[in-house]
What does this fold into?
Amino acid sequence: MADLQEILGRVIRRERQERNLTIKELGDKAGLSEIYVGEIERGQKYPSAKVLESIANALDLDIA
It folds into this structure.
């Protein structure tokens, strides 16, 4: 069974791909490095609430 970190990464990747954004483009919009965004998407890093908020804003997602 996948853990929360992996699930979160998959959701972020799906949302990014639905918007036809590259990892670099998402990173630029969120103010994050391309490497860090990739690590989050692969479930290798667990982002802070502030980073999640930056990603959600960059993807125009409502986090409420």
About this structure: The mean pLDDT is 95. The helical segments are 4-18, 23-30, 34-41, 49-58. The chain is about 65% helix and 0% strand. The longest helix spans residues 4-18.
